[in-house]
Amino acid sequence: MNQPIDVHVDLAARSYDITIAIDALNALPELLDRLQAKSIIPVITDEHVHAAHGAMLQEIIAQTGRKAHVLILPPGENSKNWQQLGEILEELLGLNLGRKDPIIAFGGGVVGDITGFAASMLKRGCPFIQIPTSLLAQVDSSVGGKTGVNSSYGKNLIGAFHQPAHVLIDTALLA
Description:
Elements: E1 5-9, E2 16-21, H1 28-34, E3 40-46, H2 47-62, E4 67-73, H3 82-94, E5 103-107, H4 109-121, E6 128-132, H5 135-141, E7 146-151, E8 154-161, E9 166-170
Parallel strand pairs: 2-9, 3-4, 3-5, 5-6, 6-9
Antiparallel strand pairs: 1-2, 7-8
Helix pairs in contact: 3-4
C-alpha cells in the first residue's frame, strides 16, 4: 500500500504542507473542503498536461460537487509572459472569485510560476494549490514560493514570493 509522505513547511503565517504519494490527487477533495472552496475551481494547465491528465483532475473535482474552470496555456517557457499573465488575471476576475478561493496550478514549472504569480496579484493574494506534473516541478519549482514571469530582459525577473496553500505531488503523473 502506498503511504503518503506529508511534509510541513513552517513559515509562520505562510506555512503549508506537501503531500507526496502515488495517488496524491485523491487528497484533493478533502483539501478543497478544508480550504472552503466554492463551486467553481479555477485550474490553470497547459495543452500537454490537459490532454494527458485533464479529464482525471476534472472528474476528481466533479466528485466534490464542484466544477473545474480550466484555463489551458500553450506549453513551454514562451507562455510565461506579461500578456499571458494579463489574460489569466482577466479570466480569473471574470469568475468573481473571493480572496480566499483557491486556484489550482496543474502542470510543470511554467504553469506553477505563472499561476502562483497570478494568485499573488489577484485581490492582493489568493491561495493556490500546486499539483506539479514534471520531475523538476515536483522536486524544485513547486516548493519555495518563487513565482513570476519573464521579460525581454531575462527569465524570472518579474515576480513575487507567494507560498502555495498546499503542494500535492502525485508521482503517478510522471509515468
